[in-house]
Amino acid sequence: MSAYAAPLKEMRFVLNELADLAEVAKLPGYTDTTPDTVDAILEEASKFASEVLDPLNYSGDQEGSKWKDGAVTTPKGFKEAYKLFCEGGWSALSLDPEWGGQGLPKLLATPVTEMITSANMSFSLCPMLTQGAIEAMLLSGTEELKKAFVPKMFDGSWTGTMNLTEPQAGSDLALVRTKAAREGDHYRISGQKIFITFGEHDLTENIVHLVLARTPDAPEGVKGISLFIVPKFLVKADGSLGERNAATCASIEHKLGIHASPTAVMVFENAIGYLVGEENKGLSYMFIMMNAARFAVGLEGVSIAERAFQRALAYAKDRVQGRDLVGGAKAVPIIRHPDVRRMLMLMKSQTEAMRALAYVVAAAVDFSSRSEEKEDQKRHQAFVELMIPVVKGWSTETGIEVASLGVQVHGGMGFIEETGAAQHLRDARITTIYEGTTGIQANDLVGRKIAREGGVTVKEWISVLRKFDLDLSKSGNPDIQAIRSRLAAGVQAIADSVDYILQTAGKDPNAAFAGAVPFLKLMGIVAGGWQMARAALIAEKKLSGKAGDQAFYSAKISTARFFGDHVLSAAPGLATAVTSGAAAVMALSDDQFLAA
Amino acid sequence: MKVLVSVKRVIDYNVKVRVKSDGTGVETANVKMSMNPFDEIALEEAVRLKEAGIATEIIAVSCGLQACQETLRTALAIGADRAILVESGEELQPLAVAKILKAICQKETPQLVILGKQAIDDDSNQTGQMLAALLGWSQATFASKIVMDKGKAVVTREVDGGLETISIKLPAIVTTDLRLNEPRYVTLPNIMKAKKKPLETLKPDALGVDVAPRLQTIRVVEPPKRKAGVKVPDAKALVDKLRNEAKVI
Fold first, then answer.
1. What integer is the mean pLDDT of A421-448?
2. Residue A346's pLDDT band (cuts 50, 70, 90)
3. Residues of B in contact with A89 (CB under 8 A)
4. Which residues is A331 bridged to in the sheet?
5. Is residue A523 part of a domain?
6. CB-CB under 8 Å, B188 with A93
7. Residue A322 resides in a domain
8. Are residues A126 and A193 in the same domain?
C-alpha cells in the first residue's frame, strides 16, 4: 500500500505565489513567519504526518474504536500518536501565545492541518474539536474557567468536544431540549446528545465537553440556548481531577467511514456544568467559530482528495494491464491509457484548485484580523464570508468525487478494502454532511451572503475576475488563452446567476434556492479556475525566467488548461440549472415522486 | 562538557537518486535535501547526553553551501545550542571536512565529537577516522551504545562478529551506527526557539584550511538494471547455478 508524502513543492508554490505568505508575514504578530521557519515547519509536519499518522490510517479504519461498558478504546497506536502530536506542539500552531500556542498565521496552520488530515482524517478530528473548544472558551469564558481548563487542553492532557446535536435537533438547533438547572455557582445538565466526535476515548485522562442546553426560563428557539462546560471528571481547586461527572457515553455509532474516530451518544444525568459567557447567547458563541469549523471541514475535502490521488497515482504506475493504443505488443502500466490519465488529471487538477482557493481564503482570514487599515480588514472579511460556504461545500463535494475516481482508477481492486482506496471514499462521505450539509452551505451562500446584501461582495469579486482577464489577455501562451476563455464564460455564468438570484430571492424564494447547490458548485469551479489561471500565469513567468523547477511549472500550465477544458467548461451548464431549473424542481406533488 | 556534532546536508533518503546526464555526478537541482540520517543519530545522542546532565553545550557544525544553514537550523531545533557553518562552494571531500573540523575542534576544545559513521550520499565512512588521526585523539567508530564514565567513554561498537565494547580516553571521536538511538521528532516550539539561537558563518580560509579536492571523480553511472529471474526445477539445479554460474559458493 502506497505511503503518503506531503506535496511540499505544491504547497510552497500555493503559499508563496498565490496566497502571498510574504505579505501575511508582515502583519503584526506574524513576523516570526520567515521563509526558513516556514520550511522547517512544513518539513517537520510532513515527517510527522508520514511517519506517525499515515501508518495508523488503514489499521485504525480496520480496527475501529470500540465501546464497552461506557468506555471507548481507540485503535492501536492512537494514544501514543496523540501524545507525540501534543508534545510536538502541533495542537497549538495558531493558538494564542499567551496560553502557550505558537500564534502562527492561519495560512501556515492550513498546510499543516492538511497534512495531518491527509495522513489520518479520523485522528485529525480530535485535535480539531479540541482547538474549537479552546477557542470557544478563550472567546467567551471567564478567567477562572479559562485557567481551570485551557492550559490542560493546550498541552494535550485533556481533549475537548462539541455537544450540539440531539436526535430531534440536527441542522435545526432551535429544537435543542437538553436542560440546564441553576444550582449555586454552577448548573445541572440533563439530556442526550448524539454524533459527538471523540465524546469518549482513552487518549487522555479527562475530556471537556462543551454542551448547548436550555435554562428553565429560557425563551423558545435559538435565542434560548446557552453554552456550558461539562467535564468528564470534575476539576478540584488545586487543578487535580476529582469526582466522575454524570456525563457518560451510552454507545458509539457504527458508521460508513472515519471508523477510528469514536462518534458518541452522550447522556447527561444531572451533570455539573459551568456557564460559558452569558445565558441564552450559546448559539452566537458557536456562530463566531462557525467560519473556522466550516473552513476546517472544507480542508478535509482537499486533504482526502490529495490522499486518494496519491494512492491512485501509485497504483496506475504499478498496475500493468492492456496494450498501448499507439502500438506496442507488451502490456503497459495503466497510467499509459488515455482514460486513466483523464481520471488522474481530474483528481490532480481539482485537488490543486481546491487547495489554492482554501489557502487564499486562509490568507484572507489573516488579513481580515490583522491588516492595519480597517477598510482592508472589512474587504477581506467580506471575501471570507462569501467564500467559506464555497470552500466547505465545493471542496467536500469534489473531495468525494475525487475519492470515488480513486476507486475507479483501481478498477476491481478499488472495491476491495485492502488497497485503501475505498477507505478514502468512505471517510470523505461525512464531509458534505457535518458542520452544515452542502444544501445548508448553498442556502447560506445564496441567502445570507448574496441576496441579503444585494450581491455587493460577489459583484466586487466579479469585477476582480474581469480585471484579471486583462492580465490573462497579455499572455501569448495558447494554453493560457484557452483557460482565459473558459474563465470568461465562467464569470459570465456567475454574473447571470447572481442577477437571477437577486431578482427571485425576495419574491419567489423557492426559485432562488432550488438552484442553490448548482450555484455553489459554479462558484467553486470559477473560484478554483481563477486560482489555476493565476498559477498558470505565474508559471509562465517562471518558465521564461528559466529559474526554478521547470518541470513543475510546465505541469502547472497543463494542469490549469485541463481544469479549464474538463471542469470549468461546465460553468454555463450549471448556470442553466440555476436560472431555468427551479420550475421543474418544484413541479411535482409529493405523491408524484414515486410511480409505484 | 562541550560536545561537537557534525551534520551534512544530503539528498533526502526518500528521494530516488538520478545520475546527471553528463555522468559527472548525481542530480541535486530541485531535489529534496535533508540532514544525513547518521548525523541525526549523532545529534540525538548529544542531546540525550545534555538531558542527562553530562553535556553542557552542543555545537553543530556543517560544511558546504549556504543552504546548509537549513540543516543547521534543524540541528538547533533538535537541541544544539549553537551552530557553525563553514561555507564553501567547493566540492568538500572527507579529508577537507576532517581538516575543517580539526580547526574547529582546536578553537572550541570539545571533549567529545560525535559524527555519523558515513553520509548516505557518498558513503565514504572516512571523516571521523581522519579527524581522529589529525587530532591524535582516541576514536570509537560504529557506536551502538555510549556510556560516559569519569573522563572516559565506554562505547559499544558494531563489528562484523558482533558487539565490541571499548573504553576510550577523552577528548575522543565517536561515529554512530544506526542502532545507537531513535532520533526524536522536532517540536514546533523548538523550531521557533531555533530561530533565536546563534549561527556563525566562517570560511575555510579563515581557518587556514586548504580544501582543494585530492580525489578525482572519473565517471558516475547508474547501477546495472536487475535482470529477470529464472525458475530452477530443484535444489540441485540451484546449487549448480550458484556454484558454477554465480560463483558465490
1. 97
2. very high
3. 187-190
4. A323
5. yes
6. yes
7. no
8. no
Model's pTM, two decimal places? 0.93
Yes or no, beta carbons of A84 and B185 under 8 Å apart:
yes
What pLDDT score was predicted for residue A150?
Answer: 93
Least confident interval from A1-5, A6-10, A503-507, A522-526? A1-5
Q: Which of A280, A298, A317 is the last residue of a domain?
A: A280
> DSSP letter at B234?
S
Domain with A172 in it: 158-280
Residue among B154, A537, B135, A454 at smallest CA distance from B127: B135
Same-domain status, A61 and A93 = yes
**CA distance, residue B69 to nearest chain A CA (Å):** 9
Cα separation, A229 vs A571, whole angstroms: 46
pLDDT of B229 reads 86
Provide the domain count of chain A. 3
Beta pairing partners, B193: none
Chain B residues with at least one Cβ partner in A under 8 Å = 14, 30, 32, 34, 69-70, 73-74, 77, 185-192, 194-195
Please check whether residues A62 and A187 belong to one and the same domain. Answer: no
Q: Give the pLDDT confidence score for residue B30 in this predicted structure.
A: 86
Q: Are residues A130 and A178 in the same domain?
A: no
CB pairs under 8 A between A and B: 54
- The 3-state secondary structure of A458-508, one letter per residue: HHHHHHHHHHHHHHHHCCCCHHHHHHHHHHHHHHHHHHHHHHHHHHHCCCC
Considering A135, A435, A460, A540, which one is annotated as catalytic? A435
> Would residue A453 show up in a list of annotated catalytic residues for this protein?
no
